[in-house]
Design a protein that fits this description.
Strand content: under 5%
Number of strands: 0
Distance between the termini: 79 Å
CATH topology of the largest domain: MetI-like fold
Structural class: mainly alpha
Oligomer: single chain
Largest sheet: none
Radius of gyration: 30 Å
CATH superfamily of the largest domain: MetI-like
Number of helices: 12
Order of helices and strands: HHHHHHHHHHHH
Helix content: 55-70%
CATH architecture of the largest domain: Orthogonal Bundle
Amino acid sequence: MSDRDFGAEVPAPLGSLDQTTVGPHLVPSDADWTAVMEVLSTRESQSVAARIRTVGQVLRANPRLLVGLIIVFSVALVSALAPLFSRFDPEQAHPFDVLVAPNATYWLGTDSSGMDIFSRLLYAPRIDLSIAVSATFIAISVGSTVGVLAGYFHNPLTEIAMRVADVLQSFPALVLGMALVVLTGHQIQNVILAIAIVNAPLYARMVRSQALAVKERLFIEGARAAGASDLAIVFRHLLPNSSAPVFALSSVTVGMGILLTAALSFVGAGVRVPTPEWGSMISIGAASLYEGGIWWPSVFPGIMLAVTVMGFGLIGDSLAEITDPRRRR
């Protein structure tokens, strides 16, 4: 007895199917695929539009965040396009045009070496931002790792690590940075390392305090009961859920890194002349300001430094308010 005896329909061979309906079997046509892709495209566009609206709402509710983003974006953009706007080589001295006041040729004047201040201002963020962002990335990587391990594990090694962080944090940032640069040398990579060491304890203490609270939650117990290893719990569950304040602090530490870079260069322990850097520009112009009242070599880089640090500070303060419900109005 066969299926035909009961009136059952035997499917046609696969090779005989065309782009139409064959019995109970459906083969999607080109029109069907087009309709599906249109639906997916519509949903994706709606999702993108919803995200844009959400970002717009956040910016409208936090004007300080908008101002900070505009400042930082403007500084980064001007630095990236510096070759298009600069009129002179930022490291080229003009011995016959020393301490020239702002004019049609030198828009912001020249310094005591005859270098064009406007061109140097445009190129300086390349050094300052690179150092600050690199140092912050290293500080976040090292500090967060130490902090989350110290929050989860309780053993002599983690205790020693946190005590070392306490000792580093007890020194003034500028003094510690100067000491580290003097010990390692004045190369830019050593300045980055020094600033990273200064900032890493901040992340270690913050992430540790968050990890101590998060590790008591039920999903951590569930992961442990499911057989996850300690390291899997730490890096897959504990660290991602302990890192919310890191984003707010990172903007602040980038601003601090720029300020510390300028301070080190000002005292001669950071970026060396003639490399364009705001701190060294202020240092070069300080003597002229004190002795002859010639203000432009130091005032213009000082303004740029202050505005940039303020921009990162506004972003960090706004992100802290967004991520911390206790600070929301």
